[in-house]
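Inputs:
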Amino acid sequence: MTRFEVKILGCGSALPTLAHNPSSQLVDVNEKLFMIDCGEGTQLQLRKYKTRISKLHSIFISHLHGDHVFGLPGLISTLNLIGRTADLTVYAFKEIECLLQPTLDFFCNRISFKVNLIPLQTNELQLIYESHALRVFSFPLKHRAPACGFLFEEKESPRHIIREMIDFYRIPIKQIPGIKAGADFTTEEGKVVENARLTTPGAPPRRYAYCSDTAFFPKMLPCIAGADLLYHEATFAEADALRAHQTYHSTAREAAEIAREAGVKKLLIGHFSSRYTETDALLAEARAVFPNTESAFEGMTLSL
Amino acid sequence: MTRFEVKILGCGSALPTLAHNPSSQLVDVNEKLFMIDCGEGTQLQLRKYKTRISKLHSIFISHLHGDHVFGLPGLISTLNLIGRTADLTVYAFKEIECLLQPTLDFFCNRISFKVNLIPLQTNELQLIYESHALRVFSFPLKHRAPACGFLFEEKESPRHIIREMIDFYRIPIKQIPGIKAGADFTTEEGKVVENARLTTPGAPPRRYAYCSDTAFFPKMLPCIAGADLLYHEATFAEADALRAHQTYHSTAREAAEIAREAGVKKLLIGHFSSRYTETDALLAEARAVFPNTESAFEGMTLSL
């Protein structure tokens, strides 16, 4: 099975602490790296975890708060210094252009690659990236600033061919890719063998959903339903629910309710407020509602 | 004697590494903190070294290269989040306004304090800040971009009064501050006692000079002559002298030649290129010319 991993580079919130860096993570799909959010110090985290920075494909910025974007100028400068030539696409709300472009123009003169800024919208679920193996969708969250969640969805993988059928029907090698893709096989005698007799289904497509920052927002449920892994912010404990609601953040319990209602397989909570020196209490509150929950930490890698 | 300390927050160069953060340091003069340069991640370094961020008085930016400024938006955002009310003055080349102001306007709405941007010039030695205890001067360096060094110079400290003289002449307490400041004393009989008989000189004013980034530039010598401590960039080893000259940086040997010619008491080298995993060779090259040299490292504190 191809690689589909999520690596946490930072899971703190607005005030960085010694325990948690500001938001950033990598989604590694078959060694192509997609970054979500890029708080200050993200490029150092990439170094710390020995990431192959040359594999960075594109960056998805959930919303324009400093703890999700202040690492972009430094990261892009470093990519320039190390001689990147491939385009870098940054998906973000359109205001980023007025903020980032002057900085890049001034600090990254003679930049060796092109930075494409693709504006996000807060419409319903929207396809924003597609390759032969993957689709990425954005969908609206509910926060003080316009904010998007992201859904990384693997495409259907090829069907598995049944070896005994190859031998039995003496299927030529050059026809195998077509059969894996769903084609029937016609024997020399003209008999059609249906694909379903020759193959078994491929691995089910894997899906990763990222929801940060957001208040409790059940409207997102159809977008993330059944995901293999949901990262949902859990900035506050239940005791600070009032503060959570005032700032359009979620409590750990609310994150778990979203996970339960969406029927995801696993929940990862993060974006912890700096007021909590450890996150055991948040984890316990989430697990009380949705047992298959983990707390994010810097350097954590989860395979889907 | 009042505190006069330099703390290194980052002494790496353009590419941050796990060994060295980008440029930043604090000059602590009697618990008032002056920051020089503010590379990405500086606010985290402040936390790591348990700095009292509320004591930050002002920031001096030597030049507008990313590794000296990309930490500013995050630091200012954090000062806003923790409710700073005192003005913050940033001394930097004037182009910083077009770069920083839109970022602050967007990300730090309802900012709780005022950020004053004071433009630097590359004229000769220029007084840019003065308090009752300290003067700060800027002076031109030689780099690819306009760049300034900074000289932090203590003012003359009060003279020490000779206790026996207080008793002998029965000097009233209320006259002591004047005598410490240099006044003569007139006895009840009208006899004038010269200050030089009543006092000994105060501690000599201490001076700290910061020179980074710069090529070998002897024109700076009059500005830094006799400083107690000189921080001078030593981006490259002698073997990479050609690269140093192409990029308007200095070798460790060149930094030491500046220290020797300026007659400073101590040299601290820093701004190390990421190509050197350790700096022993750079230190040896500098010490061959100027023995009282140290290598900077993150967390290092030197008292003047």
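The two ends of chain B are 10 Å apart (CA to CA). Flag for discussion at group meeting.
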